[in-house]
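During the no-cost extension, the postdoctoral fellow (Dr. R.K.) reprocessed legacy sequence entries with the updated structure-token encoder. One reprocessed record is reproduced below for audit purposes.
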Amino acid sequence: MSEDTAAFPAPERGAQGSSAVPSSEDVAQLPTTDQPVSRAGRNLRAAIGVGVGLVAVVVASLLMWRPAFLGVLTAAILVAVVELARALAKGGFSAPLVPLLVGAFAMEALAWTRGPTGLLTGFFLTALAVLLWRLAGGPVGYRKDAAAGVLTALYVPFLAGFAVLLLVPDDGAARVLAFIVTVVASDVGGYAAGVLFGKHSMAPSISPKKSWEGMAGSVLACMLVATPIIVLALDGPWWGGLLFGAALAVSATVGDLAESLIKRDLRIKDMGDLLPGHGGIMDRLDSLLPSAATAYLLLAVLVPV
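Re-encoded structure tokens follow.
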């Protein structure tokens, strides 16, 4: 998640509905830190360290043995499903966790072994399992809980399944790297341009720090990074690299905004706290999930197997 897409919770309400505004004395007593903090309120040193570590794990798994990346991805998706379910519970939604976890594992396995048909079949079976599992809880809240479960299945494991589909071909490692590196470029380019030039807010009610200047930086960075990868690693056309980069910049931004909207509605800052400086696993997947589907569909046309 880039700096200018960070979501902050809405002000908490007191018993009478008034905003809880800290006094000057309260602010003065808050603990201080000499750790570098970004404009998004993050510990920048921790965020960079964790980010580098995550990239190293992903690249190592791809280069050593492709199924190893499948294992890393599946583990991350299972954690993300738990994080999203717990976050939704804070808003009064009780997504059935057991069928979601089983279904998430099944979707990634079916995508690897049976391709797009397997992924789609896994999603429908998971959605059906969610609806049936929730029946045991009775009619009260059934619709919202079932909807939360289906949303979780669609948002996390189904979209992640497209990353698995990217991995399947013989050049799957290059396809996955093209997708991930381009999304990382979107985050870095958007952060840099937003900090240096950001003046015009893109979606102030959802993500106040996200600017149109940051979006332009994301598009430019993605194009510059994606084009040589598409041409040199995948033998695709140069214009395909420009199209791929621009499309993933848009999909990554949409992913950022979608998760920010959910978090604002739930009045939370992060989906979890597993990763210092980043929040939870889900907070790192927000821009990757929709971009995986975008990358798969574009590469199927630009660089068919």
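The first helix runs from residue 24 to 28. Confidence is low (pLDDT under 50) at residues 1-38. The remaining legacy entries will be reprocessed before the final report is submitted.
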